[in-house]
Structure formats: C-alpha cells, structure tokens
C-alpha cells in the first residue's frame, strides 16, 4: 500500500510540474501518416491517430517494442502465458484474451497477423531500426480488411540502419547483444542486423529448473534505386526462440510466492522459428501517378514439448495504384493472402482476396472528406482435417471528414464498418471440426480534436463501437467452445498530451476510459445480457516525464490499468477480480562521443502484477523489480 501511495504522489507531482516551468521550448511539429493508403498529415486526418517518431522512441529508453508500447501508448500489452517474445495486444476494449485478433499489425506494410490463435511476433523488430509507429484507431478496415475492428498498428523501419554494437546485462541472468550495420550511396541502401537475448528465468518449473528462454534475430535487406523514379527492395529475416512456460498459480500461491512452480496445471516448452522473404518495388510515373507492389513469403515452425508440431507457409501480395492531384487523391488495388498450417496428419488453409479503393477530397483549405470501400473474399479449405470448405464475402466501408479551425487546430469525424473472420483454431476443438463461427461485424463511430502547438500536442477522441457476433471462447465448467456474442458495444474517451516544459524537460500523458458491454448473449442456458466484457480495464493511463541536459538523459514513467473481471468471467460472478496493474520505470543514459552507457529499473516499487484467467488461475506478469545496464558504441 505504501508503494502505491508513493507511486500516486510521484505521478501527481509530474503532472503538476507541467505548470511550474517556463515556456522555453523546442518545437513539436505535426507528422505525416505514411502507412495509410494515402499519405496524410495528422492534422488533416479524418480518423483517430496516435503517432510516435524516432525521437519519441529514443527518448523513452525502452529496450524493445513491447516495452515501448506498454509504457508509452494507449495499447494494453501482456505476456502470452509467460511468453515475452510474442505478447498479447489490446486496443479499445476487446480484451487482453482476444484483442490481438481484432487489431492488424504491420511492419513496412507486411501483415503480422496469424491464421491461428498466435499473437503477432514483434520481438523480431529491433527498436533502434524503427523510424515511426502509427496507431490508427477505429479505422483501417478498407486498407487492412479482416481483423481491423479496433484499428491497426503500423511499424515503419529506417531507410538506413545505424552502425553500432550493443550489449546489456540484467538480473535473472538476462543478457543481450546486438550488431547493426548500414551502408548507403546514391543508388543503394544495404542493412544487416543480428541480436541474441537470453534469460535464466524467474519462475520455478515442476522439473526443478526455471523458465529460461532465448531469442535470436537476423536480417539483411537491400534497397536499390536504378533511377530517380524506381525503388526496388529485397529482404530476408530469420527469427527463432525457445520459451519455457510456467503454469498458473492459485491466489494464495501468487500472494505468498509468485516464483513457485504450479500445482494446478502443467509447464510446457516451445521452440519457434520464422523465415521471411520480402520483395517489392515502387515506380513513380507521369507527374501524379505511382504504382507499388510487395510480395512476402513466410515459413514458420512451432514445436511443443508435448510433441505437437506445426509448420506454416504464408504468402502475401499487395499492389496499389496511387493518384495524387492538387485537390484529391485516390488509391486502388488488391490484397491477396494464403496461409497453410501443416501438421503430421493434415493441411488446412485460409485464403483472403480483396479489392479496395479509397480517396481524399479537399473541398476547401479548411474542409476535407475521405471515403473508401473494400470487398474481401475469404476461403477456408478444411477437408483434409475432417472439416467443411466455406467461402465468405465481406465488405468494409470508411467515411470521414476533417475541418481545420486554423493551422494548429482541427476536428474530425469518422464512420467505419469492419469485420473479423474466425481463425483456424476457432474451428476445431481437440482436433475435431466444431462447425463455422459467424464473422464478427463492427460499426465504429469516431469524433475527435487535434491541436498541435509549438510546445504541446493534444489529441482527444470519443468513440462508440456497435458489434454483432463478437468472437470469444466460452469456458464454464466442462463446457468449452469458441462461439459468438450476439450483440455487444464499446465506448470511451481517449486523451493524449505531450508538453515540452522547456528545452530540457518534457512530460506526456496517455489516458483512455473504456466501457465494453455485452448486450445480448445466452449460452448453455445462462443469460449474459448487460454484463461487462471480461479482461477490460475501465481506466488505462501511461504518464512520463523526461529530462535531458548535456550528455545525460532520464525518463521516469508509470503505467496503470484499473481492476477488471477475470478473462473467463463473462457472468461477472467470480470471487476474484483482475487486480489493478501498476509499474513505475526509471531509465537513465549517458553519452560520451560515440559511446552510450544506459540502464533501467522496471517495476521500481516491486508491485505484484498478475493476469487473472479464472478464480485461482493467475499468471504472474511483471511481478518483481527488474533491472539491466549496458553500453552501446556507434561507429
């Protein structure tokens, strides 16, 4: 309790500090949203955005993407059953259990969503290589289609890598080493990167060992400019990891000793690897026209200690034609995806094929309108596994407008229709086909304000989402199955503010208030009408204060999520609730010429955090104080 009081006092002091300093500032500038079909300045956007530049990322002193997203953004991040390399992500109240399936994640346009219940792999992306992270909220279905109900996260990497070598060490035997190389001339950009991270683990396992793990990433990519109008790129990425999962604990075990091994479940171990090949080109022809096409192939393997092994083959092709005139812009194209899951006994396939068109029209200097349509055909081939083939046709729609009061302030409104088809795991239970699940369909309404001054960026948005057939996993007693919530809704308010207090000091705040309700649902004779969707915190807050002077910099941050119902508590009747999440982090850095020395303490006040699935089924998450320190040499 004393820790929580101290944390609250610190956060309050940081917020108060924004009003106590002079207005001697650097400048905040608006940013171009480059991952959308049509590039748009964030002040002109007709939808809700949350954008982080390379400067924002570097000043956070985060060691990886998951840490940055959890401590700086409005996203909710949690390890997937102890897997810190492939964590779960939620946006706008879809729940930590299923939120990642209602959100599309891309890196340089390549979709990272999977055809089964596996979260997007972000740990393969070195944070230092990220140029920008763009979070699109309540929109994106015309561009990304299947799964873009809450929006999209777009990660854009550097054109040229920084040249450096880096290493750090931390408690629990944590070690990391990384090498980044980049070369460029007038016609070529060549990048290569490799890293290795390992930890001895903190949780005990039933075998008498600990939940140690490792992760390795290697990539090489080439960008070639044969002419001023043509860009050709090719890349190859390899990632592999080995994770040992410690099982859940009872409440008494969690409170008395979260390090202990489980007595209510079992431990498991997984090896995972991914090879990705990317090929693409962009050609600017005439004055206002350009064409882009990108192809990627990913081969994945997942092996569990139980003997269950799956191989995956993903192929993706997207192409678009862009037209940019003075008062309007158009983008039209195709998206094609084919994913195979191959086991020792069968092969199942999910295919997506889509056509889309979107446009922006500037009615005047102050007023702009956007609209877009998408038709997507989804095909399931399940015969080899004893299932039934099925074709589904779905449509997405996006309408929006933006009105600029002046050069610094604007209002926007947006209406979006999106959808989500079931993944392959949803269609089978213990190896047997359980029938098809209806696609989820969502109507999103967004209204917001954007204000960007020289020393302050403020964004406020209101949203309402009306859902039909929200997909979820029902688990009560012996009854377990994947099914749909007939009707549900979500609404909330989101506030982002970054304030430059003076040239050395800044603070930022990201707050969201979210309500997620079940309107109509009856399952196994139980009525869930009016219940809260489990796993959704009403209050989510990240607050930061950063200081930089001469060669020294530091960031103090706090992440808070209010209590919620356990992940499987759809009846809101469990005796235990998901406890509030609190973590205060402190990072420091000192630079001397080409050398940087850095360190970080996470969960400074040693808060006990966990993920509640059911009564007495708790996974410890960021439950201890951890630290690391290292050096980085640029050359």
UniProtKB/TrEMBL annotation:
TonB-dependent receptor-like beta-barrel domain residues: 182-604
GO molecular-function terms, A-Z: siderophore uptake transmembrane transporter activity
BP term (GO), one: siderophore transmembrane transport
UniProt KW Cell membrane keyword: no
One Pfam entry name: Plug
Family that this chain belongs to: Belongs to the TonB-dependent receptor family.
Protein name as catalogued: TonB-dependent receptor
Species in which this protein is naturally found: Arcobacter arenosus
């Amino acid at each position: 309790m004393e820790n929580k009081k101290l944390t609250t006092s610190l956060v309050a002091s940081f917020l108060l500090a924004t009003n106590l300093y002079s207005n001697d500032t650097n400048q905040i500038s608006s940013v171009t949203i480059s991952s959308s079909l049509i590039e748009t300045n964030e002040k002109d956007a007709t939808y809700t955005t949350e954008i982080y530049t390379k400067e924002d990322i570097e000043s956070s002193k985060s060691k990886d993407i998951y840490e940055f997203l959890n401590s700086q953004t409005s996203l909710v991040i949690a390890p997937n059953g102890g897997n810190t390399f492939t964590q779960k992500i939620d946006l706008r109240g879809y729940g930590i259990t299923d939120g990642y399936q209602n959100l599309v994640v891309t890196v340089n346009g390549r979709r990272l969503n999977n055809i089964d219940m596996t979260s997007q792999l972000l740990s393969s992306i070195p944070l230092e290589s990220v140029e920008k992270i763009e979070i699109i909220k309540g929109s994106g279905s015309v561009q990304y289609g299947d799964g873009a109900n809450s929006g999209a996260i777009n990660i854009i990497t550097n054109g040229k890598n920084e040249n450096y070598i880096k290493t750090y060490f931390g408690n629990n035997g944590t070690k990391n080493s990384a090498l980044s190389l980049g070369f460029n001339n007038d016609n070529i950009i060549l990048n290569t990167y490799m890293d290795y991270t390992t930890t001895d683990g903190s949780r005990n396992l039933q075998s008498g060992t600990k939940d140690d793990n490792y992760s390795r990433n290697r990539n090489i990519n080439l960008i070639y400019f044969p002419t001023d109008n043509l860009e050709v790129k090719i890349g190859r990425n390899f990632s592999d990891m080995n994770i040992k999962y410690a099982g859940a604990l009872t409440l008494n075990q969690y409170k008395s000793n979260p390090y202990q091994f489980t007595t209510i479940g079992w431990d498991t171990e997984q090896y995972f690897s991914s090879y990705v090949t990317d090929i693409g080109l962009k050609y600017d022809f005439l004055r206002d026209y350009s064409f882009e096409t990108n192809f990627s192939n990913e081969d994945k393997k997942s092996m569990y200690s139980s003997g269950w092994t799956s191989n995956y083959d993903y192929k993706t092709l997207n192409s678009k034609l862009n037209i940019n005139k003075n008062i309007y812009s158009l983008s039209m194209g195709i998206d094609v995806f084919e994913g195979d899951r191959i086991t020792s006994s069968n092969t199942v396939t999910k295919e997506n094929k889509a056509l889309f068109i979107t446009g922006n029209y500037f009615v005047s200097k102050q007023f702009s309108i956007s609209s877009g349509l998408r038709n997507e055909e989804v095909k399931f081939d399940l015969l080899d596994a004893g299932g039934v083939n099925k074709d589904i046709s779905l449509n997405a729609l996006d309408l929006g407008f933006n009105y600029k009061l002046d050069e610094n302030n604007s209002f926007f409104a947006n209406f979006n229709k999106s959808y989500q088809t079931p993944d392959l795991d949803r269609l089978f239970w213990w190896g047997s086909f359980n029938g098809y699940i209806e696609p989820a369909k969502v109507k999103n309404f967004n209204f917001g304000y954007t204000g960007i001054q020289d020393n302050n960026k403020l964004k406020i948005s209101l949203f309402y989402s009306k859902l039909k057939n929200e997909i979820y996993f029902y688990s009560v007693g012996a009854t377990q199955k994947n099914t749909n919530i007939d009707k549900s809704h979500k609404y909330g308010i989101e506030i982002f503010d970054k304030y430059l207090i003076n040239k050395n000091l800044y603070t930022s705040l990201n707050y969201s208030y979210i309500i997620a309700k079940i309107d109509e649902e009856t399952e196994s004779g139980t009525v869930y009408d009016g219940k809260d969707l489990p796993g959704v915190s009403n209050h989510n807050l990240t607050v930061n204060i950063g200081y930089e002077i001469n060669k020294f910099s530091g960031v103090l941050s706090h992440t808070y999520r209010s209590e919620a119902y356990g992940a499987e508590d759809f009846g809101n009747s469990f005796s235990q609730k998901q406890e509030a999440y609190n973590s205060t982090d402190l990072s420091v850095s000192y630079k001397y010429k080409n050398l940087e020395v850095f360190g970080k303490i996470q969960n400074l006040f040693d808060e006990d955090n966990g993920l509640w699935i059911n009564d007495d089924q708790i996974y410890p998450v960021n439950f201890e104080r951890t630290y690391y320190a290292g050096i980085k040499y640029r050359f």
